[in-house]
Amino acid sequence: xxxxxxxxxxxxxxxxxxxxxxxxxxxxxxxxxxxxxxxxxxxxxxxxxxxxxxxxxxxxxxxxxxxxxxxxxxxxxxxxxxxxxxxxxxxxxxxxxxxxxxxxxxxxxxxxxxxxxxxxxxxxxxxxxxxxxxxxxxxxxxxxxxxxxxxxxxxxxxxxxxxxxxxxxxxxxxxxxxxxxxxxxxxxxxxxxxxxxxxxxxxxxxxxxxxxxxxxxxxxxxxxxxxxxxxxxxxxxxxxxxxxxxxxxxxxxxxxxxxxxxxxxxxxxxxxxxxxxxxxxxxxxxxxxxxxxxxxxxxxxxxxxxxxxxxxxxxxxxxxxxxxxxxxxxx
Length: 331
Hints:
Layout: H1 3-35, H2 40-45, H3 52-62, H4 68-80, H5 94-129, H6 134-148, H7 151-165, H8 186-203, H9 205-220, H10 223-230, H11 235-257, H12 259-272, H13 278-287, H14 291-319, H15 321-330
Helix pairs in contact: 1-14, 5-6, 5-8, 5-9, 5-11, 5-12, 5-14, 6-9, 7-8, 7-12, 8-12, 9-11, 11-14, 12-13, 13-14
């Protein structure tokens, strides 16, 4: 079987697996929301004065009193036709809300993801090369603190220090108050992106740094690395030729696997900095009983996380030549 056929077979298997998982996520999420005290009718009418007849009509429209199986089948049928319903908060189609909010979150998450990956990898390389020195110990302590500290706590500290006390950056929002998004300059927008992106990136550093450190130490203890040292290679040139190249792909694989943590961290960071992204929309949908928007975000986040895992699997199975060689040797 050619490598191209292997990739197609692999993607086909993953696609079937994703469809099954996606349907399960939709059904479980719908059941959990239906069992919760969330009531879309009360959210829709809000503080309006309506008659009992109008309430009954809205309940019939939303299918509040229908059996759970009928609700699920209607919901699945609407999803198949591309209809996610209308947001009760924004009064527009859910898909439009997700497009707008996810674009803002995607820029935040990808910026943070890239920074955390590069910074974590570099710190891991330095820590592994300087094993058991004060530099290694300092990096490990830094990573352990990040892993144990709550995300919202670190975000609040950064907000208080750099925004409130020093006044270097705005305290939140994606654009200045009273301004339209299309009227904001790129520099004004970036100025409000820096703190959330910085916060989210340093939170993702710890895992990749500790993993890279351990993998580099493992490579430094390997036979071929010791043989290279015996030939006279030393210093950073030795790390670059025989260390970084062998650690890079596993580190990239791990970075793609961190999409779920990235999305979860973005929800909290966006809430602290009032950043108008998908995370803040998810919290608002939950607090204000916007069932269509909440379920739509759950579906979209599942796709986002699965894509990250799929890319990691592709790298792990088809890009890293050492894995291929290991599989061939085992056959």
